[in-house]
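Hey,
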Amino acid sequence: MRGIIIGDLLGSSAHASLAAAQAAAPLAPSAITPLSGATATALLRNVSYGYALRHAVRTDPLLQAEAQLVAGLAQPEQRISRTDLLPPIWASLSGWAFGSLSDVEDEAEAIAAATHSHPETLRAARATAACVLLLRSGASAKDVRRYLEGVGYRSASLLERMGQFVGAAAPPTLDAAPLLPLATQIVLSQPSFVAALDAALAAAPAPSPLRASLAGLVGALAEAREQDLPDPALALFAHAVDAATQACVQLFAEQYQPT
């Protein structure tokens, strides 16, 4: 779970690397961090995902300020019906909380469905959580790519759409379709958690919601592969994240991420 938040912090900033961010002024997360915290709380307390996420949207000051990205989410009938607003990266937490692929996919879809209704977004949530499970279980890069191909992430048009994000000064949308294969490719091609995050920041260099989403997604996948995060990443987390979120992350780690 720390990987999502570290990625969100870096992606929400203008810094080009984790090393550059360490010496900077305090970092501010996007909506991804509190919604991830709400999802973790729901998993830990066995309460409704919809209740936890909508409660966070109604009560969290950061989410109140992110009106454009979370518009309508306080009511179940107003779920996001587009693919270009706030991909539910927090659904990836089911990849830690459950042990079978079918359970992980189903729970990820249930988490995403609390705030989103577009079929492509729900598919992306299922696949993201499944990749977390595969990576934390030691699956090879070939196995991860085979899984993604099996759930439809393999068309030439999708690969072309991925290209629009690489090096773009102002990526146009948050489309969930190209984000997952792009993030997966970044993680599988980089040797470490830090290298993967730095590559994600380079892929979307201008501060934007897309950059935060891509970096958060890369952080989630890279943490699943590495499991033990490097000291610079942990130091950034300890320095930049509020005490309540740190406590939630610690509880989630103790329950679902034993070392």
